[in-house]
Design brief:
single chain, 515 residues, alpha+beta, Nucleotidyltransferase, domain 5, seven-stranded mixed β-sheet, 19 helices, globular
């Protein structure tokens, strides 16, 4: 008996086949192009993505020599915020705008001025600000105003989960967590917000049916079965947004543990002790979603430039290390983090403000920029590398501490993504945050979360709690070193003092550039 977790992201998709105990039996990966037809646009071609998804599923079945009749269910983990306008036959009539598509700035500003950020947050749990025009709501308005013929042809606006479900089994159904990312979903009533749709003058029929994650919705249609190598007897189950799916894959089914997904961006998420939708949470930039467990809510923060800063350093200042890593047949990041480990705690009093694309939560300031503070002639490459990792860890603690002020006690960090590969960085996070850091025994957290949902929808397990108990295992644990933690308490105190003066400074610089 097998379960398929399909993880569809911004630039690629993964099809991972698991057995009922959560062991990976087979997997495949496929890439597609992220288009930028204009500087502020970011789009996917839905036909390209769907073709790649089918090829990737077929490859995963073939690679594992899996009997497709034994794959009893599949579910999807998808990128949030992106959507596809489709006609009455389900065919795309426009490309899919992704999170990073910034064309709807003025429409987002209109909602701030005419609806209000506090009211929007109270209904949807999403922080409304024109500096981050990421949600489908204002982008659909942009289409209505700038592409009226496209809007006229559109029978439904689908997010990627509902679009894939339609292609897989003919039913465009989404779940609460993906609907949460549209800025049109009432997260307490668990339905499309009549107030928001009426304000936008959108007909509710333009949007899909919504169900909780982990519910069976249909079987693979015969045409798709033929193209993917799946069986028409494979059940399709509602999945979720990639971040809560990743958290579920990391075994998070109750409040306490926080998901720390470290890749290009660092995403931090925790189940709330109780649902809170306060102005302070909104101003800090935290989004509150319905989780992939019904009646549970997920607070989600982020640092927009985490692992990407290491990549920036690698590409600009580590040519020698790249060549050395190639000769040694090792990952260049392993080499860079091993260099950082040779620098003393505090990197010889060198600090990094890791705001290379502005700050995410909890400061939520797009004008601030990155900075190294305290450089001297005594500093070398290993000190700069350690300052990068320490600065990113301070920012992680900043988020964790902010989350705790809203009544949810953080007991441990469960790390997933590329950042979970470095033992030095994992220990550093434990020492800086003062909390245990756990590495789950999984390679694909979001796909694992999707497979867990598939197992529940297919009745393999009674609920997500039982499924996680059977599937989730820990690979490694890093506990804070008391001596290191005491030193980092002092450094973190200094780090917190740096934000305000630098925020004012970069605000002045931004004003100069607009004169």
């Amino acid at each position: 008996m097998y379960l398929l977790g399909l993880d569809v992201g911004t630039t690629g998709c993964k099809s991972v086949i698991f057995n009922e105990k959560g062991d990976v039996v087979s997997s495949a990966y496929g890439e597609y192009t992220l288009y930028h037809r204009r500087p502020e646009w970011s789009e996917l071609n839905p036909d390209e993505v769907w073709t790649t998804v089918m090829e990737t599923i077929r490859a995963s079945v073939k690679n594992g020599k899996v009997n497709p009749e034994l794959i009893i269910a599949l579910s999807t983990s998808v990128l949030g915020d992106a959507f596809i306008p489709v006609d009455k036959n389900g065919n795309p009539v426009y490309w899919s705008m992704t999170t990073f598509d910034a064309r709807a700035t003025e429409q987002t500003r209109w909602w701030e001025e005419n609806f209000g950020a506090d009211e929007m947050f109270r209904i949807t749990g999403q922080p409304l600000t024109f500096t981050m025009p990421i949600y489908p709501l204002p982008k659909i308005q942009w289409l209505q105003e700038n592409e009226p013929e496209v809007y006229r042809k559109t029978a439904m606006f689908l997010c990627w989960e509902d679009y894939l479900n339609m292609k897989l089994c003919g039913k465009p159904v989404t779940d609460f967590s993906v609907a949460s990312r549209t800025m049109m979903f009432d997260i307490t009533k668990k339905e499309w917000s009549k107030k928001i749709l009426d304000t936008a003058n959108f007909d509710e029929a333009l949007f899909p049916e919504i169900k909780p994650a982990g519910e069976a919705i249909g079987y693979i249609n015969r045409e798709t079965a033929k193209k993917t190598g799946l069986s028409p007897e494979t059940l399709v189950v509602t999945g979720g947004h990639d971040q809560p799916c990743g958290a579920l894959g990391a075994g998070i089914i109750k409040t306490g543990p926080v998901m720390d997904a470290t890749g290009t961006v660092e995403c931090i998420g925790v189940l709330l002790k109780e649902l809170l939708l306060t102005p302070k949470i909104r101003l800090q930039g935290f989004a509150v979603h319905h989780y992939v467990i019904e009646n549970e809510y997920f607070m989600f923060g982020f640092n927009p430039t985490s692992g990407v800063i290491l990549r920036w350093f690698r590409d600009n200042f580590a040519l020698q290390e790249k060549e050395e890593a190639k000769r040694m047949n090792i990952d260049v990041y392993d080499l860079l983090t091993s260099m950082a480990a040779k620098s003393p705690i505090g990197a010889k009093e060198l600090f990094l403000l890791p705001y290379f694309e502005g700050s995410g939560t909890p400061n939520f300031n797009r004008q601030i920029r990155g900075a190294f503070l305290g450089l001297t002639l005594a500093h070398d490459k290993k000190d700069v590398l350690r300052a990068i990792l320490e600065g990113l860890s301070y920012e992680l603690r900043n988020n964790v501490d902010a989350m705790e002020t809203h009544g949810t006690k953080i007991t441990e960090l469960r790390t997933i993504g590329g950042g979970a590969k470095s033992e030095f960085w994992l220990q550093l996070k434990a020492d800086v945050t003062g909390r245990k850091v756990v590495v789950p025994n999984i390679t694909e957290a979001a796909a694992t979360g999707a497979a867990i949902l598939a197992s529940v929808g297919a009745g393999v397990y009674r609920d997500t709690g039982e499924a996680v108990k059977a599937i989730y295992r820990e690979k490694a644990t890093f506990t804070p070193n008391p001596e290191n933690n005491a030193v980092y308490e002092k450094y973190y105190g200094v780090y917190r003092q740096l934000y305000e003066p630098f925020s004012s400074l970069f605000k002045n610089i931004a004003e100069l550039s607009h004169e």
